[in-house]
Design brief:
The protein has two helices and three strands. The longest helix is centred in the middle third of the chain and has 17 residues, at about 30-45. It has a single domain (about 5-80), classed as Ribosomal Protein S5, domain 2. About 35% of the residues lie in helices and about 25% in strands. By secondary structure, the protein is α+β, with helices and mostly antiparallel strands. A three-stranded mixed sheet has the order 1-3-2, with helices on one face. It has helices at about 30-45, 65-80; strands at about 5-10, 15-20, 50-60. α1 links the parallel β2 and β3.
Amino acid sequence: MSFVAFFKTSKDETTNLGFVASKKIGNAVKRNRAKRLLRALVLLNESKLPSGKYVFIAKAEIFNRDHKTLKNDFKYAMKKMELF
């Protein structure tokens, strides 16, 4: 798994997103790249996400995965949270 995702429902119809990459990932360039990759995954599936609060935490494995595998990781995480 290349990231960890958390979800909490909210009473209003807004969606709040948070992207985290710690210093364990690497320097600032790598941390920003990891967050950009996570944002891209969310944008691809934005219409499917229910409203609520989301936090995505990048892991170091995110750099070892290709785009197709990252999409599969995202779908797997959403199924585990029972959102898809």
